[in-house]
Amino acid sequence: MNIREIQNKKQYAWIYTLVLIPFIYFLFVMIVPLGTSIYYSLTKWKGVGSPKFIGLHNYITLIKTPDFWLVTRNTLILCIVCTIGQVGIALLIAFLMTFKKLRFKTFHRAVIFFPVVMAAIVVGYVWRFIYNSNYGLLNTFLMRIGKADWIRYWLDDKSIVLGMVSIPVIWQYIGLYMIILMSAISAIPQEVFECAEIDGCTGYKKSIYITLPMIWDTLKICIILCASGTMKIYDHLVALTNGGPGRATESLAMYCYEYTFKFGNFGMGAAIAVTILIFAFTIAGIIQLVMGGKKK
Amino acid sequence: MKKKFLSVLLSAAMVVSLCACGSKTTAETSENASTEEEGTTTSETAATTQTASTGLKGHFSIYHFHEEDGSGTSKAFWDAAKKFQEANPDVQIDYIFADANNYQEKLTTYMAGDELADVWLTKGDMLPTFADGGLIQSADQYISKDTDWSSQYVDGAFTDSTYDDKQWGVPFQMQANCVGVYNQAIFEECGIDEWPETWTELLADCEKIKAAGYTPIGMGNKDQWLAESAVFNTYAYKYVDQDWFNSLANNQGAKFTDEKFVKALDGFQNIAQYFNSDMNSIDQDEMYSLYYNKKCAMFFNGAWSIGTMIANCPEEILESTHVGLMPAVEGEAGTKFDTAAGAGWNYVINSKLQGDDLTACLAFLKAVTTGEYADDALSQGFISAAKTTDACDMSSLDPLFSEYYELAATMNNNSIFDCVLPAEVGSGVLYADTQQLISNSMTAEEMAADCQSAMEANYER
């Protein structure tokens, strides 16, 4: 039944009833928990008895806690690095895939997409073995090629550890954004490319001046998805470093989990969760603002 | 028509799925209600003097982390539990298991959802929350009435379950959180005749071992608890004592920034130079691997590692494996006998549990913490919180465990920091900062100030 077929009130009622069911589902799965999270963030609650309303006290405590700013910094750095790494590399590969001379495209696509279907915790443990200082693949490789002086304790060195944990995250999700961007590229009418080629626009110029503007909206969505997804980063970090050394690789999601389930401080945990939401919305807004007018 | 039928089918499926989500809650609520109703009809008298074959009946649930195919206290628990159930077929027990690594998190979730079991295991740091919230009933009111039960526990067994002058929990183990495990063959190879008695000797030995190409002390602190809870905690007791800790925990004057505690942090940072360099990225099991592969000469860890060594260590290494107490620091008040040790976890009883169910539960707790359980635990390489019976065959103990058993008898047990302090401090700041301390990214003074700041925030709450 499409909209032109609606002829009477009975049909309208039927359609609204159908829409209402997923709406109620969404309301109770998304909106109500969000509302209760905001409420709990304004309370002092250890999981026992009734929550005690304390206004913005949890948020004030958070702002005054240096560890909160440390984990916020970690999360934002990871967010920027992973977004540039994942979407940037995915875009390059998607461009490469448009080149006619490239062989075995299906094979490349399958191999690059493969890590996406792996569980994040598995990826974390796999890379932990790669980074292991005694029997890890990386240090063994460096030893074999005679670069023993490059060997580092990859997950123990505070100065490099944040970069090291971002590599598996980037590696895992390149394939996802590559597929999204490739599908956007494939939706561009072939005539546009043909016209461009007639006008002498070939190679990288075609990618920059034709393909990129045509997939701009999809690219924006990829960046928003990637940035807001990285704001919730948890599994990889738990498997790789458990947030250490100290809190050098701890993310806001881990900090939230720690307060909620390890310390049983549900009020503070909810405040951190709401903060993550605010950060994610802000980042999405900034991306929208920066990239929004470009299409015109 | 087909489309209409499909849409009806899909919406029906969605409605059913929504209803299914809600029905579980309803069922659980009614179950809780029925438990409460049952509770009002029977006496609270602790019929704990009943033996395990006197026709007990009742139904209760227990949330625990004892693996059914595990070793140590887990095996002893299941042996005792199965015997109890055979003798009491009318007692129905629902076992709710969670892996030890995720146990605490799930417990917090159950607590918040008001879905706690009738009996569960908890550490001392959660007692105030449970007790003040009226979620548990004190165990001593029942244990003290049964002299046969109360007389079976060793001294200090209830220290970790005492809050507000009441003993809330039932202990099942007494173990040292720190014991030195070393490879005698590597020691001899490096010209070391015996386990060091003093800290200076330990440092000198570490130098010799390092010069011989071995890692002197293995450390697997990825999960953050090992360095603090299983090593530093005992090292701190070479500088501070139980009174200092009690004062700190109860806001009676002692501070993390006190000179002696800062000195302890400083000394611990110094010994970290002898740990393996990847100390913060490998976990406990990987640390054991270093030891099994003769890459490290010794490690410090809780007494649970003795059972692991006996079960998993290659025979050649196990033969030359011995245990020792953490050496004393010259010039400081603490002795080598001062060790962080205790019951740690205790069974607590839900305040809603009453009547026959409570009676059955108490009999069960007695069976899985005392009597034959104590003998069985010992034979598994674990010291229980209860005294062993006369029937216990000490000659059958593994030689390594016998060594530890003798050492344990000499230990001066002190509180385990993370079992007593609020979780934000004990398993939060202390864990994270110790990791930074041993990797030299934080000074002793900075860590002391950070811990004190977290402690003061908790006093205010």
From TrEMBL, chain A:
Residues 72-287 form the ABC transmembrane type-1 domain. This is Carbohydrate ABC transporter membrane protein 1 (CUT1 family). It is a multi-pass membrane protein. It is found in: Cell membrane. One of its GO terms (cellular component) is plasma membrane. The keyword Transmembrane helix applies. InterPro entries: ABC_transporter_permease, MetI-like, MetI-like_sf. It comes from the Bacteria. GO terms for biological process: transmembrane transport. It comes from Lachnotalea glycerini. The chain crosses the membrane at residues 12-40, 75-99, 111-130, 160-180, 214-234, 268-291. PANTHER family: ABC TRANSPORTER PERMEASE PROTEIN (PTHR30193), INNER MEMBRANE ABC TRANSPORTER PERMEASE PROTEIN YCJO (PTHR30193:SF37). Keywords: Cell membrane, Membrane, Transmembrane, Transmembrane helix, Transport.
UniProtKB/TrEMBL annotation, chain B:
The keyword Calcium does not apply. It comes from Lachnotalea glycerini. It comes from the Bacteria. This is Carbohydrate ABC transporter substrate-binding protein (CUT1 family). Keywords: Signal, Transport. Residues 1-20 form the signal peptide. Residues 40-50 have a biased composition (Low complexity). PROSITE patterns: PROKAR_LIPOPROTEIN. Residues 27-50 are annotated as: Disordered. Belongs to the bacterial solute-binding protein 1 family.
